[in-house]
Every structure is written in structure tokens, then in C-alpha cells.
Design brief:
It is found in: Cell membrane. The protein is an all-alpha fold.
């Protein structure tokens, strides 16, 4: 606190070369990790969420055995702390991207950790679709695929966006943890300089930037979700 007060009194805020040189690169790495992992999570999490919903009791294609198996896998994925997950799948990460260091490598555990989380949010959103609409379209002779594509997903799109917003914000938090084990980004800069070298101004700048990024994601997600809401 004394060091921060001194910096402020001397007007040397943001003059730290780490802030000027390392933070811009860290911002780009954090955004890259979040965007790539978010897109992959949406691409893989939506089908998994649809499978959870359709095979559940009362779903459009109920299957107790398949639902329990998929549900168990999803629950295991959600229960693992991200740091442990990231370390435990290092061999798989190397197999996929050829390295376990850097933001590209961090995308793998970020995606693996976020998919089960988002799949459950997708399942919840699909359960909120009016049963009357589903029944009406089914009576008109729609196939299960048509029912999913033309009714369930369009009707649940506001919830899907809201769920994806929550997932992306969770991913931003995960990127900070990934930085602690070589993933790069703002988390790595905060740990390397703010924590290990006691450069408090670097730590504060990294925290403020993470808060700004999370706020922007939340505001944009809320706007899109409201515009898609048909209720």
C-alpha cells in the first residue's frame, strides 16, 4: 500500500515497463484463450446438452441408460477443479497441440472443463421450452431432428445465449488459473510480477482489466439475450 501511495504521489502510475510491454500481450492472450475456448465450447456443448435433454425422462427420445451414462460423464467433468483437470490432461493437451505451454495449450483444458458446464445450462434452457409447442409440432408429424432444429433450439436461444455468457465469464476466471501453470495471459503476468515480485501496480492493472473484460462480456450477453427473448 505504501509503494502504491508513493507511485501515485510521484505521478508514476502506469510507467512500469511491465505494464507497458507485457500487459498488452497478456490481454491478447487472455482474449484469444477465451474466444477460441468459448467457440469450441458452444460447438460441442450444445449437442451434448441436447442429448442430455432428449434422452431424459419426458424428453423427445428418452433412454434411461444413455442419459445416465452421459449424465455421469458430465457430472464428473463438472466436479473436477480446473487446476487439477488442467494438470491431469497434460498428455492429451500435448497430443492435440504439441505443447503444454502457452495460450494455445491452455485452450484444450479450458474447453474440456467448460463443455460439461455449458451442456447442463443448455439442458436447463431446453426444459424451459413450452411443452405445448413441442406437443403441437410433434402431432404435426415433425421428426425428432426437425423438432430440435426448428422448435427447441430457436425457442431456447435466449437461454442458450445467457448460459454461454455465464460460461464465457467462467472461462475468463479459468484463464487466470491457467496463467499460473504456463498458460500465459493476464493471470500469468499477475502471478509473475504482481505476486512473486511484489509489483502491486501490475497486479492492480491486471485485476482491473479482468473486471472490465468480464463486465463487457456480461453487458453484451445480456443485450443479446434480451433481444432474442420471445416471451
Amino acid at each position: 500500500m505504501i509503494a502504491l501511495t508513493t507511485l501515485a504521489a510521484e505521478g508514476r502510475w502506469l510507467d512500469n515497463p511491465i505494464i507497458q510491454q507485457a500487459v498488452p500481450t497478456a490481454i491478447w492472450e487472455t482474449l484469444a484463450m477465451t474466444v477460441v475456448a468459448g467457440l469450441l465450447t458452444a460447438l460441442l456443448g450444445i449437442p451434448l446438452g441436447v442429448l442430455l435433454f432428449t434422452t431424459s425422462p419426458g424428453g423427445t427420445a428418452p433412454s434411461t441408460f444413455l442419459n445416465r451414462v452421459v449424465g455421469a460423464v458430465v457430472n464428473i467433468g463438472r466436479s473436477l477443479p480446473f487446476l487439477i483437470l488442467m494438470i491431469s490432461i497434460i498428455p492429451f493437451t500435448r497430443l492435440v497441440v504439441g505443447t503444454s505451454i502457452g495460450w494455445q495449450a491452455a485452450v484444450v483444458p479450458l474447453t474440456v472443463g467448460a463443455i460439461p458446464f455449458y451442456a447442463r445450462l443448455v439442458e436447463t434452457s431446453l426444459r424451459e421450452v413450452s411443452a405445448g409447442k413441442v406437443e403441437a409440432v410433434t402431432m404435426m408429424g415433425a421428426s425428432r431432428g426437425e423438432l430440435t432444429r426448428k422448435v427447441l433450439l430457436p425457442e431456447a436461444r435466449s437461454g442458450l445465449v445467457a448460459g454461454l455468457t455465464t460460461t464465457v465469464i467462467a472461462l475468463i476466471g479459468y484463464t487466470a488459473m491457467a496463467g499460473a501453470v504456463g498458460g500465459g495471459g493476464l493471470g500469468a503476468v499477475a502471478m509473475s510480477y504482481g505476486y512473486n515480485r511484489f509489483e502491486s501496480d501490475v497486479m492492480i492493472v491486471c485485476v482491473v482489466l479482468l473486471v472490465v473484460i468480464v463486465t463487457i462480456v456480461q453487458v453484451v450477453g445480456d443485450i443479446v439475450a434480451r433481444r432474442l427473448d420471445r416471451r
